[in-house]
């Protein structure tokens, strides 16, 4: 593979729409910044675009240069198009964004999403074996994040250059607390609980959600141990009992407010969904409930305990206590202490 030639080229990275998937693209953005700094070419720049308002969140962990994918960005792309655009997702939300050369994954159910180059790594094939092995072994990345590194290959960078320029760990994305202003939204200590997954009540993703009654039983156990439980998400169902120690903030927080709330939390409990990845990015421990085998692990394994299809609260409660440093209290079989 040839090294990149010097030039004044502007690169656009169009991020996935879902919050969790976009967070899993952060290693790619960090790697590209390091590669350009160390290997050029002179004049190359990278701008990321997101249909979700993620710019302040990413800036809070040191990743700047993320713009909103709106009508303004689309209009400007026709006046001054990026030289290369890498679409990490094919979606109507990116329709109308113009690049001189576009790279993406053609899909039969998205006939309007057309690209001048096929980014085959997004099909699950991943980049070259040498690069894939380095990212998995040395950077502890998982398949979904690794697949995005086909962008690195398409830009002409070699595995040797990646190995020389890129390393990844929790220290790669430190949270800058100085960006948070004002009083905390909730007095500590508290645990966050998200009972939904995949856009709330969307029926075709119902199998991604654990029984919400199990979450409520676990929350009651924590409440009886004088631990405040804050419920987050978009879906206001099922109702949360109006009890001391329960705080229902579902549907009331922006992504930025949610991230600030997470940074100060003692831990997180929830399904495999965007807030789980956001909690991981905030640097707090989590217990993740996974209902499917196609797991998209958060970036930092050491912060997340994986539970695949647990039968009930009794399988989860001891792990919650371990996460929070609580003494497990023997309770009834229904999970209430």
Summarize the structure.
By secondary structure, the protein is α/β, with parallel strands linked by helices. It contains twelve helices and twelve strands.
General description of the model:
With 337 residues, the chain is α/β, with parallel strands linked by helices. The protein has two domains: 163 residues, Rossmann fold; 142 residues, Rossmann fold (3-Layer(aba) Sandwich). Helix content is 31%, strand content 15%. The chain has twelve helices and twelve strands. The strands form two sheets. The protein has a six-stranded parallel beta sheet. The termini are far apart.
Protein topology:
Elements (H helix, E strand, L loop, with lengths): L9 E5 L4 H5 L2 H14 L5 E6 L4 H6 L5 E3 L2 H9 L4 E4 L13 E4 L12 E2 L10 H9 L5 H5 L2 H5 L4 H7 L24 E5 L17 H13 L3 E4 L14 E3 L6 H9 L3 E5 L2 H9 L3 E5 L13 E5 L4 H12 L13
Parallel strand pairs: 1-2, 1-4, 2-3, 4-5, 5-6, 7-8, 7-10, 8-9, 10-11, 11-12
Keyword list:
Rossmann fold, single chain, disordered C terminus, alpha/beta, 6-stranded parallel sheet, disordered N terminus
CATH-derived architecture of the largest domain: 3-Layer(aba) Sandwich
CATH C-level class of the largest domain is Alpha Beta
Percentage of residues in strands: 15-25%
Biggest pleated-sheet summary: 6 strands, parallel
Please, how many helices? 12
Kindly provide the radius of gyration, computed on alpha-carbon positions and rounded to a whole number of angstroms.
Answer: 21 Å
Task: Give the tally of β-strands.
Answer: 12
Q: Order of strands across the biggest sheet?
A: 3-2-1-4-5-6
What is the typical, i.e. mean, pLDDT?
Answer: 88
Decide which structural class fits the backbone: alpha/beta
